[in-house]
Amino acid sequence: MTATDKDNPVRLVTPSFLGLFMAALCFFFAYGMTVPILPPFVKERLHGTDLIVGVVVGMMAVSSIVIRPLVAPRTSSWGCPRLVLVSGLVGAGAFAGYGLAADNVQLSGLRLVTGAAQATLLIAAITMVTSHAPPDRRGQAISYFSVAPYLGIGIGPVLGQTLFEHLGFRPAFAIAGVIGLAGAIPILFVPNVRVPRPAGAPRQPIFHKVALWPGTVLALGMVGAIAMSAFMPLFVSDLGASGTQWIFLAYAAVVLLVRVVGGRIPDTLGPARTGWLSTSLISLGMVGFAVTPSVLGIYLSLIPLGTGIALQYPGLLALTVNRVSEEERPRAVSTFTMFFDLATGIGGLFVGGIVAVGGYRSAFAACAACSLLGLVLLRLFVVARPTEGGAAESSPVETALPSAPVAATSEATEE
Prior knowledge:
MFS_trans_sf; two-stranded antiparallel ribbon; 1% strand; Growth Hormone, Chain: A
């Protein structure tokens, strides 16, 4: 960054950023509303079994992974804001439609639609956010934007459960659809931006190789968060305590605080060093869960775990997008974020298997080992690997990363 850049820093929180932020917040708030009421809806209204609940819930991850290769090219032909708008509208319709599903087959179809909409919205929004941020502030931009989905998923279930208890399934799902629909309003005021694509460019592979190892490290770290979400209530009960909701609230508070107040950390430390720090903290937090004799130990372990989760995603994503060109960025973002869905699906099965064999503490210890494996992979295949320009990186500090162009193509300029 030059002296002029420091005197006149690029604004990250612009009207376009706020439009994308609000669209994502509305979508994930609506999604969060459906989380606590979907399982009882499947069992009580549609007479499904526990297995059917798992299938219906997991359908989202399937379509989210499958749709990704189709989204990246559309950032050039459609433009990022249009993709956000369309996916938000489609998702809103799916949320409202849950309550109208006559059977679990129809509901599974709507979950497939939801997963595709979620993946499309995230890829398009993150691509635009990172395109407008200078390379040395992309981690901060990602940290700020990631507050939207996390806040929505964190608070949405509270409203969803309350509406269900007072109004029933269908009104709760319908209101979720209305909130999702509201996300279309702010995006209407965001100028449409297309990611530039060179004329006659050769067909690219579906997945971007630069994102594969950082994404793998992310998935190994996310397994710990998945284990906490799935088994913390049962683990706390085994300790003879209750009040799991306060544990989850404290965890959410740590993550949001670090992402908002510490938004500059990934750029200040460098994305690779942030990856080292965050992955180590996740492992430390999971070790704390595995050995704690009391609920107090759980709360103390939330500090390193929440801090690590808050920093890992923006740090590793910034590391990824800094290594690719502007036209490659949507494909890299698509590949990287895919690992979140893989972690949700495969990680849940892995943790459940460990619990069945060795109990909750063994599962938490296994999650700590996964994060340690992530550290090894980070060192061997991410930090020490050659960049796209061919120069090897011998330090965790990302000072020598090639800077991708920041400019994106606006329709106003084209037309």
